[in-house]
Amino acid sequence: MAEETIFSKIIRKEIPADVVYQDDLVTAFRDINPRAPSHVLIIPNKLIPTTNDVEAEDELVMGRLFTVAKKIAIEEGIAEDGYRLIVNCNPHGGQEVYHIHMHLVGGRPLGPMLLS
Ligand code: AMP
C-alpha cells in the first residue's frame, strides 16, 4: 500500500486548503507556494503516487485531470493567453509530494520550459 500524503487529508477536508473544485474523481486546490498568478494543483482522489503507478483502469481519472484543468483555466481567465500543465515524477522530475498532481500554472508569460 502506498503511503498517504498531506494531499489525502486535503481531499478529505481534514486540513484547510483553498479548494476550487472537487468531484467524485478529482480535487483541485491552490498551491500553497504559487509560482505564478494562477497556480492550482489538480489531483486524483485515489492515491496514485507517481505517473509510474498509473494503470489502464486509471484512464478515466487521468483524463478528468485535463478536463478539470481546462475548466479552471477558463474560470481563472487564463485559457486564451495560455498556461502550462506540469506533472513531475520522482526525484529527477522534481516530485516532492508522492500523490500524483497536475500543476496548472499561468497568468503571466512563463517563458521556455527549462531542462536544467
Ligand atoms: P511537486 O514538486 O511537483 O511534488 O509539487 C508539490 C507542490 O505541492 C509544491 O508546488 C508545493 O508548494 C505544493 N504543496 C505542498 N503542500 C501543500 C499544501 N498543504 N497545500 C497546497 N499546496 C501544497
Polypeptide structure, described:
The chain has 116 residues and is an alpha+beta fold. It has a single domain, classed as HIT-like (HIT family, subunit A). Helices cover 24% and strands 22% of the residues. It is built from three helices and five strands, in the order αβββαβαβ. The chain has helices spanning 6-11, 59-76, 90-93; strands at 19-22, 26-30, 38-44, 83-86, 102-106. It has a five-stranded antiparallel β-sheet with strand order 1-2-3-5-4. β2 (26-30) and β3 (38-44) form a beta hairpin. The radius of gyration is 14 Å and the shape is globular. The termini are far apart. The mean pLDDT is 96. Residues 6-115 form the HIT domain. Pfam families: HIT. It comes from Aliivibrio sifiae. This is Histidine triad nucleotide-binding protein. A motif (Histidine triad motif) lies at residues 99-103.
The set of bound ligands, ions and cofactors reads:
adenosine monophosphate
Order of helices and strands: HEEEHEHE
- β-strand amount: 15-25%
Describe the largest sheet: 5 strands, antiparallel
By secondary-structure content and strand pairing, the structural class works out as alpha+beta
Give the overall pLDDT as a whole number.
96
Q: Figure out the total of helices.
A: 3
Give helix % range.
10-25%
Number of domains: 1
Q: State the end-to-end CA separation.
A: 33 Å
Low-pLDDT parts are none
Q: In the CATH hierarchy, what is the superfamily?
A: HIT-like
Could you tell me the radius of gyration in angstroms? Answer: 14 Å
CATH class: Alpha Beta
The coarse silhouette is globular
CATH architecture: 2-Layer Sandwich
The CATH topology, please? Answer: HIT family, subunit A
- Order of strands across the widest beta sheet? 1-2-3-5-4
